[in-house]
Every structure is written in structure tokens, then in C-alpha cells.
Design brief:
The protein is mainly β. It contains 1 helix and 9 strands; from the N terminus they run αβββββββββ. The protein has a single domain, classed as Peptide methionine sulfoxide reductase (Metal Binding Protein, Guanine Nucleotide Exchange Factor, Chain A). It has a 6-stranded antiparallel sheet with strand order 3-4-8-7-6-5, with no helix packed on it. It is globular. It starts with 7 loop residues before the first helix and ends with a strand.
Length: 121
């Protein structure tokens, strides 16, 4: 399978499960309509209507596109990591029970793991 070329910082996050500094990501405060896709393989991950402001420092979503994201127990054994279901690229972590939205779920995603594709029109 062919993947997009990544910068060293993107490789650190996507391939080596790193985390970008909070409040530094290009998509943390983005409110435009569109779709967020995987930076490594271009698979669709999230819709803008599922994005919400959690004030945690990273883009937050309370739902993913069906089948787009896999959940795996993190190396620390406490958190749940989320990865692209297509290429296994690290996206971030998912948290439940925080009551930020009615879905009670927060996908905390690194901006560098995604590309935003604006909605046409």
C-alpha cells in the first residue's frame, strides 16, 4: 500500500504514537464545514458536525465516520488509543464519561494526524 510522505514531526506522531503540544494544532479551533481525513492514507475519519469545543488543547470529536477508527488499549494500560482503521496511524485517544456532549465521548485527535477537506459550496 502506498502512503503519503510525512514530515519528521508527523512521523513521530502517526508512526511512533507521539502527541503534539496542546493548543498548537491547526485544527484545534477550526469551525469550518468539511471532513477530516487521515494524513497518512487519506481515509475519511471525522465529519465537522461531530467536532466540538472541549478546551483540552486538541481537536475533539464525539463520533467518527462508521468503521474509520479502531480503539486499542494504550501502552500505558489506562487510556484507549485511537488509530486509523485503514493504515493503523496513531490519531490520539478516546475518553468516555466526561459529559461534554450527549454522546458522552471525546476523540482527542492530533491535528498533525489529519488533513481537513472543506465542504464544497
Amino acid at each position: 500500500m502506498s502512503y503519503n510522505k510525512l514530515t519528521p514531526e508527523e512521523e513521530y506522531i502517526i508512526l511512533h504514537k507521539g502527541t503534539e503540544m496542546p493548543f498548537t494544532g491547526a485544527y484545534t479551533n477550526l469551525k469550518d464545514a468539511g471532513t477530516y481525513i487521515c494524513k497518512r492514507c487519506n481515509a475519511s475519519l471525522y465529519k465537522s458536525e461531530d467536532k466540538f469545543e472541549s478546551h483540552c488543547g486538541w481537536p475533539s470529536f464525539d463520533d467518527e465516520i462508521p468503521g474509520a477508527v479502531k480503539r486499542v488499549i494504550d501502552r500505558d494500560g489506562r487510556r484507549v488509543e485511537i488509530v486509523c482503521a485503514n493504515c493503523d496511524g496513531h490519531l490520539g485517544h478516546v475518553f468516555e464519561g466526561e459529559r461534554f456532549t450527549a454522546k458522552n465521548t471525546r476523540h482527542c485527535v492530533n491535528s498533525l494526524s489529519m488533513i481537513f477537506v472543506p465542504k464544497e459550496g
